[in-house]
Amino acid sequence: MKLGERVKQRRIDLKLSQQALAKGIATQSQISKIEKNELQPGSQLLFNISRRLNCSMDFLYIGDELDTQLEQKLKVIERLLEDRDYDALIPIIDGNYLSNGSVDEIAASKWVRSIIGYYNYGEVEQSLQMIEEAYQLIDSNMYVKLQVSICNTRAVFYYSQNENEKAKSSLEQGLEIAKRLNVDDSYQIKLLYTLSNIYASERAYDRCLAYAQTALDITINSSRYKLYSELIYNIVHSKIEMKISNDSDKKQLEVALFLSEQSKKHNITILIRDLMKLL
């Protein structure tokens, strides 16, 4: 069942008309299109719809398909973080979405608040303190994907503050957790990509190449291509700096360029085009 079908079924269960559901938050036409899966609602609209339907956003996104309540909540949060939809995240975090008092939910709340503070408000010191508090809560009983996500965010923050050793330590811990507990491949790819970026910034291109290539191998084997263009850039850039590039690298860049353009990733598209001039 798709999102629109869940919205419609929930509305019918509550004996609401489309007009009643739409009142004050959308038009009846928008609700109709959402229910037909002709319109993907923005995060704020979906949040308002979920409140009107007296259910969670995670129910509308994914129904009851996931194993735990926390996993459902994190699935929604991660989607909003990927979209950088901080305005929709703020009422979720400020409300009762993560409120059962468990260590996992406390850590998750601190993790998300640190990201909102860092990227939306530029509150660097407060965000570093918040992610450290979340990091200190990590233990073997914590939900594994949350452990890895906290490690990755902590690393990204410290890397952006030029504290590379702290960043590396956090990433290595995240990788150890991910490999030991067989976490979804996309999390390992993210960690390895961040590590490759750090070593590129240090001009340690052999290490950058090794981590980026490992991430690319996982990407291909798992068919998770979200960071494919970025990984190819790091690989070819490293090989050029090490003077070991070859003809196949240009073909790889062409594929990476095509995918980045299709995904409208403007920054990496520009970097790839500049790199292609060197081959």
UniProtKB/TrEMBL annotation:
Pfam families assigned to the protein according to its UniProt record, in alphabetical order: HTH_3, RNPP_C
Alphabetical list of PROSITE patterns matching this protein: HTH_CROC1 (PS50943)
InterPro entries the UniProt entry points to: Cro/C1-type_HTH, HTH-type_regulator_Rgg, Lambda_DNA-bd_dom_sf, PlcR_TPR, TPR-like_helical_dom_sf, TPR_rpt
Residues covered by the HTH cro/C1-type domain: 7-60
The name this protein goes by in its record: Helix-turn-helix domain-containing protein
Source organism (scientific name): Mammaliicoccus fleurettii
